Amino acid sequence: MLASADELSHATSKLKAHKPFTEPSLMDSCRTYGSFLDRLQHSGMLKFRVALASESGVLGVFFVPKKDNKTRLIFDTRFLNCKFRVPPSTPLPSSSAFSSLESQCISGQPLLGSADISNAFYHMKVPDEIAEMFTLPTIEAQF
Q1: Which end of the chain is more exposed for a tag (fewer CB within 10 A), N or C?
Q2: 3-class secondary-structure state, position 8
Q3: Cα 81 from Cα 17, distance rounded (Å)
Q4: Are 42 and 36 in contact (CB under 8 A)?
Q5: What is the DSSP string of 11-67?
Q6: pLDDT, tens digit, for every residue of 6-30?
Q7: Strand partners, 77
Q8: What beta strand segments (E) does 66-140 contain?
Q9: What is the distance between the alpha carbons of residues 70 and 20, in angstroms, rounded to a whole number?
Q10: In this structure, are residues 85 and 2 in contact, taking their beta carbons and an 8 Å threshold?
Q11: How far, in Å, CA of 142 to CA of 121, rounded?
Q12: CA–CA dist 41, 56 (Å, integer)
C-alpha cells in the first residue's frame, strides 16, 4: 500500500507545488486556525496529538463555494497521495454499456435502484493504522 522511498521521491518531484495549499485566511491568525481546528474536532473530524519536530503537515485545507451558497471543505492531499502506491486499475463499464441495461419488473417493482449519499466524504473514516499520516499544519496547544 505504501510507496517505496524511490516511488515517493519520483511522485513528489512531479508536483508543481512545494507544499500543500492551505487557505491563507486560516494561516494569518493562530486564533482563527485554532478555532477552525476546534470546530473540526467537535464535529468528530479531527483528533489532536503531539507533533513530531520534523512535521509540518502533509495536508492543506481550503474552501470553495457550492452552487447552493454553502461552502465545501477541501483537503489538499496531493503530497499525502504520493506516499501511497498507485492502485491497480479497475475496469468499469462505459456509459453506453450502462445505457443498454434492461431491467425487469417483479410484481411491478423494478430490480434496479439508486441512492445518493449527501456529503459522502463526511461518512468515511481514515483507518486508525494510517490516521497519523493525515496531518494538518501544526499549531501550538494554547490556540
Answers
A1: N
A2: helix
A3: 14
A4: no
A5: HHHT-S-SS----HHHHT-HHHHHHHHHHHHHTTS----PPPTT---S-EEEEEE-T
A6: 998 898 899 988 889 999 999 999 9
A7: none
A8: 71-76, 105-106, 109-110
A9: 24
A10: yes
A11: 30
A12: 19
pLDDT in tens, 75-109: 999 999 999 998 899 888 888 887 777 766 677 77
Confidence of residue 63 (pLDDT cuts 50, 70, 90): very high
Q: pTM higher than 0.85, yes or no?
A: no
Residue with cell 486564533: 31
Say how far apart CA 23 and CA 139 lie, in whole Å. 15
How many Å apart are CA 125 and CA 16, to the nearest integer? 29
Distance CA 109, CA 34 (A): 52
Cβ-Cβ contacts under 8 Å for 31 (sequence gap 6 or more): 143
Grid cell in block for residue 82:
504520493
